[in-house]
């Protein structure tokens, strides 16, 4: 319900599927990705619940992890701590192992819910490489965050300038508008 499968579909298939079906076990997709003039085949796994799957099977050849929570439900952020502990029990994780925190569903936020301090605290506590929010539905920060995770897995320089900034504006009737900020090209 945090949108992991939607993120994978947005990244791998360039589309958002609004029909919701809970992932049981695992789900994976492969995408060809060009980074710095080199093509890579990226395998992305969605583990519905780490307690339900054979964790060792999915983590054995893992190069990086994107932990996903729902920004409109901070209880899902608390579950990231449990998942991180499971990962650390089954993997030898160094400080350089890429683990990112991604807050999905920013398009459903209200200003009252918009809290970036809690995710930053969790990311720091768990020694995660980075934390960002975005939206699978609106394709905000999906490509940039996954590409940066892949770059880090490959030992390449991360391009933080690719992170798309936005603001959450709430109208009088509490409807939310996402205002994307233009990227500066340095000119």
TrEMBL record:
Question: Do you know which NCBIfam families this protein is assigned to?
Answer: small_GTP
Per UniProt, which keywords does this protein have? GTP-binding, Nucleotide-binding
- Write down the superkingdom of origin: Eukaryota
One cellular component (GO) term of this entry: membrane
| GO biological process, alphabetically ordered | signal transduction
Gene3D superfamilies with a match to the protein in the record: P-loop containing nucleotide triphosphate hydrolases
Q: GO MF annotations for this entry?
A: GTP binding; GTPase activity
Is this entry keyworded rRNA-binding?
no
Question: What is this protein identified as?
Answer: Rab-like protein
